[in-house]
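For concreteness, we quote verbatim a single protein encoded this way:
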Amino acid sequence: MAEANWYVVHTYSGYENKVKANIERAIENRGLQEEILEVRVPMEEVVEMKNGEKKVSLKKMFPGYVMINMVMNDDTWYVVRNTRGVTGFVGPGSKPVPLTEAEMKPLGIQKESVSQGYSANFKEGDIIKIIKGAWKDTVGAVQKMDYMKGTATINVEMFGRETPVEISFDDVRRVD
């Protein structure tokens, strides 16, 4: 099998999370889990002062862009390129260009972190507490686990509604 690389996809601004969800749905529907390994909207924690109070929030590092770790072939190119909200791959003309090691390093992406799976001391259905980041001290039940990415998805209450949040295995601990 060909090697997976990270590619950058240009989207309509504000549609990054919707594009991510649509691509993940297409991966599941078409059985492309072995070829499209990860879809990311790079986020960073930003500390802002509002009314004299420090507020930590997550902001998109690159508005209008989504990163995808995938094996480039006709099928994967077609699925990503024809996803609603995607305007194209970043690269000359219609030829996608993978990110280099030097470009991936400041984003906190390591090649080997994707090829090997992660392990966790909890499973789906367990109650976990987030110990770091913007969602610190939030408690929720694990809805989904992704061992390749090392993340768990939990539902948190935001604006009176349950909202799924993807969190790193390193940022949580099991509540006994």
